[in-house]
Amino acid sequence: MTMLAGIYSLLSASLFVSMDAVDVAFTEASVGAGISTLLMLTTLAITGRSEHPVRHKPLLAFVVVFFTGALLIYATLDMPSYGDVNSAANLHVVQRYINDSFMEIGVDNIVTSVLASYRGFDTFGEVVVIFTAGIGVLALLSFARRPINDSEIDSINDSMHEEYLIVRIVSKILIPFILLFALYVQFHGDFGPGGGFQAGVIFAAAVILYAMLFGMSVARRVINQSFVQLFAAVGVLIYGGVGIVSMLNGGNFLDYDVLSDDPLAGQHLGILLIELGVGIAVAMVVIIIFFNFAERIGLNRARNEQ
Amino acid sequence: MMDMVINISSALCLFLGSFLCLSGGVGIIRFPDFYTRIHAAGVSDTLAASMILIGLMLQNPEVIVILKLLMILLMTLFISPTASHSIAKAAMNSGLQPLLDTEASKDGGKPSLF
Fold first, then answer.
1. Which end of chain A has fewer surrounding CB within 10 Å, N or C?
2. Chain B contact for A167, CB < 8 A?
3. What pTM was estimated for this model as a whole?
4. What ipTM, to 2 d.p.?
């Protein structure tokens, strides 16, 4: 099931590439085929591989699913055909975006200008949703950790060193490049595929790689949990803060024109700041989620051994 | 003359790369054991990708493009063998035993794990 979900994410990422939507494909590949699959495998490690045998026939569930599926398929019959020139999306807003985006915002990548400026409210909602997911995981899965002790870390290091030698050495070479690539994707969202979401996920992936290979105790020492939790909130705060500053300068909420003397410079500044906020928030939240899931594995293992 | 040599060698590399990709795909389906299948996947991931990248490097004479493709080649050579190694190691740690010679001659070549 997990493997099927991962394959599905990879296939939809390829589908997006074939539709020339490289930004979306990038995000789908990194989040869907990368982090989602990883989190589902972590959950499997916590809960176990097979479910308890079902005692009753799930007939009602089947009927509900069948009707919902039939309604959805009926709804898709009404949709415009693939790439239709006269579809509602292509007629109204897209004309404005394609014609005026460069003059009003001055950013080469129209996807970034739509995401960050024309639809800034929606992106704010997305960041808050991600932050809420992080808080939810913290509320449900975190627990008082026992203090880290050095002898435990040394023993883990000795036992893992022989076994994971190759992957450890290769990852030590590669992790700086992964972090550098995350920074590149973050700041090149204006000119090519990229932006805050992808960059945050790639940054978190580097940290998760380190945590998986070197053990949770070492990782907890290197990456302070309270720092991570603080910065998740700081990311959302940066985004909201840009909106408030725009209001203080006389414009509407998240109106970047008033952030500077020249509207184009204001747009650039606004987009840079909010993408930074998005990147920080996403990276920290994914790290929070992974660390809390992974702590559970250790807890379950200790509980099973008792 | 030099142009022709570069063109032909690039075409050779690309052709070799695609052939290796294809044979890797056939291998994944037809090999009898998990570990041999990892080998087929590793070949197509590492060698075929590298051959195609070298072929592409020879196609385009600009320095900046060659440099970028060289970086991608380096990353591929680092990452793909490590990935194959990790999969094989995970399988070994879970207890999957490789199909050895004696079993194969008794089995008649039937696949051991799906």
1. C
2. yes
3. 0.83
4. 0.75
